[in-house]
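Risk register update: the risk of archive-format incompatibility is retired. Evidence:
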Amino acid sequence: VRAIDNASNAGDWSAAREFYVGASGTLVAKMTRIIGYVGSDVTFSGTGFIPNRIAIIYYDTTQMAEATVDADGNFSASFNIPASPGGEHTVSATDGTNTAEVTFTMESTAPPAPPPLLPASASTVEPETHFAWESVTDPSGVTYTLQIASDTSFTSANSTSTNATSANATSANSTSLVLEKSKLTATQYTLTPEEKLEPANKETPYYWRVRAIDNASNAGDWSTAREFYVGASGTLMAPWLLYSLIAEGGTFTCLFGYWLVRKKVKSRAGIFSTGLNPPEDGK
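Archived output:
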């Protein structure tokens, strides 16, 4: 564009601007699924974009893929939905001039509480305690959070536990939480030497619980808190050793019984061979 005054003095032209004309209402974006979970395989496609441009696809603000727009203004690209909170997310594509969006809804169902296995309730364990629980499943995948506390409130500093009751609640400025391990991918954890628990008597138990959190940040319920006790290191018999001793004791009992029977049979056989009357049963 340029300006010409009423005296017919023509000004300079402005800088030329490039633009494109598309048919009205033809800018369209689609996705193969709009509800899913972390890791869902989706394909984003668009029409009405500028030919030969690079279309960049974003999940919220994270670039996920790119594709070249063909001569007809179409493109498509596939990617996997990344870890993100449950709820709605914007998936958009832009060629630098045009932008089209699709809403993707991340699942928001929390995983179930993992059933606790070890330590068993009211058991006594080593200071470097081994914890185990059953696995749970979730389409978005899960990690586990393990907590150990000195009472059932499981409170950390300057917080109040949702599990605390009026009878066992801890004050807001105190803490009963001894250790928390988060983002555990396995269904077991053994305390390190630096994390080992202090031995305590039967009046001062520890408590532990575990929960699952999926990769869409949906936190499940805590498992039932388990009470356990810690003995001095080296004073407790490992379960495998206890079972071995029980098995060996059973084997010894069987062999000893077999030996007694054979001895009694041989004794009676000797009496018959000498012509003596055998003793009455029980004599």
